[in-house]
Design a protein that fits this description.
The protein is 56% helix and 8% strand. With 345 residues, the protein is an alpha/beta fold. It folds into 2 domains: 130 residues, 3-Layer(aba) Sandwich (Rossmann fold), CATH 3.40.50; 164 residues, Hypothetical protein af1432 (Orthogonal Bundle), CATH 1.10.3210. It is rod-shaped.
Length: 345
C-alpha cells in the first residue's frame, strides 16, 4: 500500500449502484490496507464525502440515481483535492475522455481487472500525496519565513546589544551608562503609567540609544577640552547614525524614534530635528532626562560628577526648558526610590 500515515490511512469511496461490484472492489482494496467506504448513488456519495475526508472516489458512470458524469463536477467543486477515477463500459472511449476533461484523474473499464485497479489507485495516491505535501508546505511556508526572520532579527539585536555593552565597557567614563539610562528610563516610564510594551521598548532603546557613537571618532568622543563647532556637529550625528544602523533590524518605530530623538529638548533647541514640546515622543523625552541625569552623576574626562542632589536640582531647573515637565514630575516622584543615586556621586 502507498503509505499516508499509520494513524490516518488513505480513504477510498466506491460509488456504484451494484452491490456485488462494490463488495468486490472494497474487499480487494481493504486487503491492500486502504479504508473503503461505499455509496450506491451520487446523492449518497456526496453525503459520505461531507461526513469524512476522502482521498479517492471510484465513480461508476451508469447509475439509476444519476450519472457519474454529472456528479464529477460537483465533487471537483466541493472537494478539489479529492481524486476521481471513473468506471466506464468497455469501448466507451469518448465518455472516458470527456471525464478526464472534467477533472477525472483516470478511468477503469468494466468489468474490473482488480490488479489494474490496485496499480491505478496506488499511482493516484502518489499524486495525492505530492499535492498534500505541496499544500502543507505552502500553508506553513509563511509561518516558517516569519520564524526565520524573527530569529535573524533576534540574532542581530543580540549583536547590537553586545556591541553597545562593549562600547560602554571600553570607556571608563561611560562604563555602564546605557544600562543605567535604561534602568532610570524604565522607572520613569513605569511611574508615568506607560503600557508594558512601551516600557519594554524604552528599556531596549536605553541599552542602544548611543549605538550611533560607533560612527564618531574616539578622539572626539573622549576629548577633554572644549569641542570645536565641527567636532560637536560630528557628535550630534550619533543619534541619526544610530537610527540608521538600527532601522533594518528594529521593527518598533518607538525604539527608532527614541534613538533618533533622545537629544531633542522641550524648548526646541535640541537635535537632530529641533522638535519641541509634545512633538517629542514621550519615550524620547524620558530618555533625554535619564541620559542627562546619568551624564551629570558620572565623572567625565573634562569634569567630575555633580552628585545626585545637584543633578536633581539641574533637572528641576530644566523643567519646561530642556525637559518635559511631566517627565520631570515623574522623575522627582521616583528619584529617591529607584534612581541609583550612589552611582559615581
Ligand atoms: Fe546620546
Amino acid at each position: 500500500m502507498m503509505e499516508k500515515s499509520s494513524d490516518n490511512p488513505w480513504t477510498i469511496l466506491i460509488v456504484d449502484d451494484e452491490n456485488v461490484i462494490r463488495r468486490l472492489l472494497c474487499h480487494k482494496l481493504k486487503s491492500e490496507g486502504y479504508v473503503c467506504i461505499e455509496a450506491d448513488s451520487p446523492q449518497q456519495a456526496m453525503e459520505k464525502m461531507h461526513e469524512q475526508p476522502v482521498d479517492i472516489v471510484i465513480l461508476d458512470i451508469m447509475m439509476p440515481g444519476g450519472s457519474g458524469i454529472e456528479l464529477l463536477p460537483d465533487i471537483k467543486k466541493h472537494f478539489p483535492g479529492t481524486i476521481v477515477i471513473m468506471a466506464t463500459a468497455v469501448g466507451d472511449a469518448d465518455t472516458a475522455i470527456k471525464c478526464v476533461r472534467l477533472g477525472a484523474y483516470d478511468y477503469f473499464t468494466k468489468p474490473y481487472n482488480l490488479d489494474e485497479v490496485v496499480i491505478s489507485v496506488a499511482r493516484a495516491l502518489n499524486t495525492r500525496r505530492l499535492e498534500l505535501e505541496i499544500y502543507d508546505y505552502q500553508q506553513h511556508l509563511e509561518e516558517k519565513v516569519q520564524i526565520q526572520a524573527a530569529k535573524i532579527r533576534d540574532a542581530f539585536m543580540n549583536a547590537v546589544m553586545a556591541l553597545a555593552l562593549a562600547m560602554d565597557a571600553k570607556d571608563e567614563y561611560t562604563s555602564g551608562h546605557s544600562g543605567r539610562v535604561a534602568e532610570i528610563s524604565v522607572a520613569i516610564a513605569g511611574e508615568m503609567g506607560l503600557s508594558q510594551s512601551a516600557v519594554e521598548n524604552i528599556r531596549i532603546a536605553g541599552m542602544i540609544h548611543d549605538i550611533g557613537k560607533i560612527g564618531v571618532k574616539e578622539e572626539i568622543l573622549n576629548k577633554p577640552g572644549r569641542l570645536t563647532h565641527h567636532e560637536f556637529q560630528q557628535i550630534k550625528a550619533h543619534s541619526v547614525i544610530g537610527e540608521r544602523i538600527l532601522k533594518p533590524i528594529v521593527d518598533e518605530q518607538e525604539i527608532l524614534d527614541i534613538v533618533r530623538m533622545h537629544h531633542e529638548r522641550f524648548d526646541g533647541n535640541g537635535y537632530p530635528d529641533g522638535l519641541s514640546g509634545k512633538q517629542i515622543p514621550v519615550g524620547a523625552a524620558i530618555m533625554a532626562l535619564a541620559d542627562a541625569y546619568d551624564a551629570m552623576t558620572s565623572d567625565r574626562p573634562y569634569r567630575k560628577s555633580l552628585g545626585h542632589a545637584a543633578a536633581v536640582d539641574e533637572i528641576k531647573k530644566g523643567s519646561g526648558i530642556q525637559f518635559d515637565p511631566e517627565v520631570v514630575e515623574a522623575f522627582l516622584r521616583i528619584e529617591t526610590k529607584t534612581v541609583p543615586n550612589t552611582v559615581s556621586s
